[in-house]
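Quick start: read one record
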Amino acid sequence: MGEKERTAGSLLPEDAFETGAPEGTLGAEEELWLADPETLKLSGGAQKILAAEPAEHFSGELVDCEVEANTGIHREASGVGRDLISRRKTLLEHAGRLNRVLGTSGTHPLGDWREQEIIDKPHYQRLKRKLGWLIRRNNTFSLHVHYGVQGKEKVIYLFDRIREYVPHFLALSANSPFWQGEFTDTRSARALIFSRSLPHAGMPEPFGSWEAYANYLDFIVRPGIIQRLGEIWWDIRPHPRLSTLEIRAFDAQTDPARSEALISLAAATCDMLCAEYESGQRRPVRPVREIEDNKWSAQRHGLDGFFVDHDTHEPVPARRAAERLLELVAEGSRRNLSGTELLLEGPTESERQLAVWRETGSVREVVRDIVRRTSDAII
């Protein structure tokens, strides 16, 4: 490998955050799973679907039981939501032909990672060799939201600031209380399995400037620790190729209406931070150690726990903290935020899973309910 290829500059486009996604536009990626209709256990088929569909609509994600649906670029969350439903419809048709059922949740409640096949792509086979057991056990499913940003220093400010709201995003989206058929005593096992296991995952440190970000990339690219920016799996990350800020803190949602509401919230939060940046009225950037305590509460208790207020150091119910964020972003937002009330009015997806489990005493029935609701949403 040549010297040029061993620098961050080889991975950072010169026009990053100068072209690409227009400011404030949105897109999303939704990770879904395939299962056997009889056993309801995870089952392969993704590679057959990918061979038949446009690459811009679907992509592979590590294992053959998982498909990632990719939306187009839209000004409003409603357009992104329509794309997600359209992609689900296509995947349901493929699943039927393959004798599979389709579902989406932060983890598959019954899925056994030891039974899954890593897809036959060079990138994922290399990760298998590099990370071994850690990457093979990562059967997790997320909703990723992209927000278009123009300006290198601006995206770093948004990156630094939005980290504070990762716990809010996780508490509202928690949808993975089960792992390997067992109740984990958490609301988001995905956050534990993914963020706490893999390198360059979880809560990142703030950078303060584009130069500091580029220098860090050089630190891990030059010695070959990573070979592509996609090997950075932070809860929030700049996406230089697309000129977007990517919010990766959400568990995948079974109800697409909740997905659209989360996309609206993420967009309005970014709008608020853009306004801060443009006005020059910058707000404090919180240290990792403070955010991690709130993220742990979100992972463990969802909206039923409490967060620590960064300014007063007093406990605040997580539900009230989420309400306050919704109030803040609504104050100056020009977006259509109708639908975001769903995030607090109804139960979270993890609460729905637990209600089925407590009523039936069966994790298998939890999976059956996820499958039913995944398909019912588009019929």
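The first strand starts at residue 26 and ends at 35.
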